[in-house]
UniProtKB/TrEMBL annotation:
<feature type="domain" description="AAA+ ATPase">
    <location>
        <begin position="4"/>
        <end position="163"/>
    </location>
</feature>
<dbReference type="Pfam" id="PF09848">
    <property type="entry name" value="SLFN-g3_helicase"/>
</dbReference>
<dbReference type="InterPro" id="IPR003593">
    <property type="entry name" value="AAA+_ATPase"/>
</dbReference>
<dbReference type="InterPro" id="IPR018647">
    <property type="entry name" value="SLFN_3-like_DNA/RNA_helicase"/>
</dbReference>
<protein>
    <recommendedName>
        <fullName>AAA+ ATPase domain-containing protein</fullName>
    </recommendedName>
</protein>
<dbReference type="InterPro" id="IPR027417">
    <property type="entry name" value="P-loop_NTPase"/>
</dbReference>
Length: 362
């Protein structure tokens, strides 16, 4: 903090404890902030996250803590604009879910520069970046490890890789199956084990199973790929899968609890945007029409034309790479996020009849 700008990059896939680490680090920093004998005494520190549900979670933790303040948790755009307006400089900034930072101008969200990470570094002495390029979901926040290193440039950088899986309480074969499936390879379902992993042929039956777990242990939800219509217009929209017809998660910015933490959301289907960053005990995943099966190649088919989150592709031409491959990567990243939420059990139902048949055969 006294000599030069420093950046600490912490990389780790879903479930490796990144958000727990953020909470722990910031708690210690802010505890020292109140200690007059500490080098951190009086420092101006923040946690930033470009995810409204995660921000609710952090602010709730701050409200229950004796050392944390809600004002120290913010969205990146709000932080950048405040620093510019007040010509302030932060000491330590931790960026959770840094793969969600904008990589292009977004006037609609009041970001007028070109890259949020670049701007944050300008306004902080030390930046801790929590990053997983397998969780990039939108073209306007399109990151790769190469792009990250290029943005950081010649600054003092340290990189740490988190590798231990804390969330998914399954043997390696289940974790390997999920990883292969998100690479479009369909393997035999792993042997029966403590982690309850099932392919379902009845969506309503899957929902009933999830509700049983919700009553028994809590934190059990239905999730779906973004393949069913949804608009932010105050109306209810529904996920229709086989014999199941259940509404999408309702947008409620005024709700203090995050979607995954509210008991009433057992009556809804969550999307990648409401569940990213959170743990569940049991998850039932609906794979919508954008995912199919090709018998010739024996692989998963990804169909961007059926993806209802077309806004995720805004600005994709400006990336200058293979457009279809980039769309596919964003969709498979979203799939990976959904399939890596559950700690104790994962259930999968495919709407596409060919994919459902193949998965059941496996």
């Amino acid at each position: 903090m006294e000599k030069q700008k420093g950046v600490f990059v912490i990389e780790g896939q879903a479930g490796t404890g990144k958000s727990v680490l953020v909470t722990s680090i910031f708690n210690e920093i802010q505890r020292a902030h109140n200690d007059k004998s500490s080098v951190f005494s009086g420092t101006n520190n923040y946690v930033l996250v470009n995810h409204p549900e995660m921000l609710k979670f952090y602010k709730r933790i701050a409200g229950e803590s004796s050392v944390l303040l809600k004002k120290n948790f913010d969205r990146p755009t709000s932080f950048i604009n405040k620093m510019l307006k007040n010509t302030e400089q932060a000491d330590i900034v931790i960026i959770d879910e840094a793969h969600l930072l904008l990589t292009k101008k977004d006037v609609y969200n009041h970001f007028f520069q070109e890259n949020q990470l670049q701007e944050i570094i300008k306004h902080a002495k030390v930046v801790i970046v929590i990053f997983d390029d397998n969780q990039v979901l939108k073209a306007k926040s399109y990151w790769s490890k190469q792009k990250l290193i290029a943005i950081l440039g010649e600054k003092s950088i340290e990189i740490k890789h988190l590798q231990k899986q804390f969330r998914v309480e399954a043997d390696a074969d289940v974790q390997d199956w999920i990883a292969e499936f998100c690479s479009k390879k369909i393997q035999q379902v792993p042997k029966k084990q403590k982690f309850d992993f099932r392919i379902m042929n009845d969506a309503k039956e899957m929902y009933e199973l999830v509700k049983e777990h919700e009553k028994a242990v809590g934190l059990s939800r239905l999730l779906a790929t973004y393949d069913f219509p949804y608009r932010l217009d105050g109306n209810d929209y529904f996920v229709k899968a086989g014999n199941l017809n259940l509404r999408w998660d309702r947008s409620n910015p005024k709700e203090s609890l995050a979607w995954a933490e509210r008991s009433d959301t057992i009556n809804e289907v969550g999307s990648v945007y409401t569940i990213q960053g959170f743990d569940l005990n049991y998850a039932g995943i609906i794979l919508g029409p954008s995912l199919g099966y090709d018998e010739k190649s024996n692989k998963l088919i990804v169909r961007p034309e059926f993806y209802e989150d077309q806004a995720a592709f805004n600005g994709i031409k400006q990336l200058g790479s293979n457009i279809e491959a980039t769309k596919e990567r964003l969709m498979l990243n979203a799939l990976r996020v959904l399939l890596t939420r559950a700690r104790k059990g994962l259930y999968i139902y495919a709407v596409d009849i060919n994919l459902q048949k193949k998965l059941l055969e496996c």
